[in-house]
Amino acid sequence: MSGDPRSPADLSARIITALFHPLLMPLYGLLIIFYAPTMFGYIPENQKKYMIFILAANNIVLPLALLPYMKWRKLITTWTMTEKKERIFPMAFTSFFYFMTFFAVLKSGIPLFVKAFILAAALLSFILTIINFWYRISIHSAGTGALTALIIILSLKTHAPLLPFLLPAFLVSGLILSSRLWLNAHKPDEVWLGYLTGFAGMILLLLVF
């Protein structure tokens, strides 16, 4: 579908893809847990800042910092990593960093639900890495599916009406899936399977706790 990369449609799709990059989705999820009108809003601000810092450092800064090294070692040839084999190392390292974050907060006084969310993100990242060996699943779609599922579970567990968060999540999901298809980054089945994997995976993992 993609045409002129300078066209408004292409530019909009690229901006949406960047704003809702998979590396950013767990951070958005954490912010929703902390600042949505639920019981978790009363977590001390210093604990919130600690969690946000740990997650941002381990799961955004470190994975991005490794990309130039991977490109120098020719583990990846492009920043977009369009081939399955090029995504293996970045995805594996990202999964490792998620588990690092989980173990870093395991013995902290942060509520169990927050720890469960970090563990679910780590396990989902690992599952996506395994799937990628055989199938080029859309990680962008998985990220937005997982974020939508988080809001649903958060609403159910805290008995809080989070419709003002859920409706934008569905809207963003549609924008992300459409953007990936518009940019020819994925086929329809890769996009939908990614969304369903993220959505179902996050719900199942969080329901365990």
Provide the domain count.
1
Distance between the termini: 42 Å
Largest sheet: none
CA-based gyration radius: 17 Å
Shape: globular
- What portion of residues belong to β-strands? under 5%
Order of helices and strands: HHHHHHHH
Uncertain spans, ≥5 residues at pLDDT below 50? none
Please, how many helices? 8
> How many beta strands in the DSSP annotation?
0
* Share of helical residues: over 70%
Which structural class matches the secondary elements? mainly alpha
Summarize model confidence as the mean pLDDT: 89
What does the oligomeric state look like here? single chain
Short description:
By secondary structure, the chain is an all-alpha fold.
Please provide a written account of the structure.
This protein has 209 residues and is mostly helical. It has one domain. It has eight helices and no strands. The relative contact order is 0.15.
What are the salient characteristics of this protein?
209 residues, mainly alpha, 8 helices, 74% helix, 0% strand
List the helices and strands and how they pair.
Layout: H1 8-19, H2 25-35, H3 45-72, H4 84-105, H5 112-132, H6 139-158, H7 163-182, H8 188-207
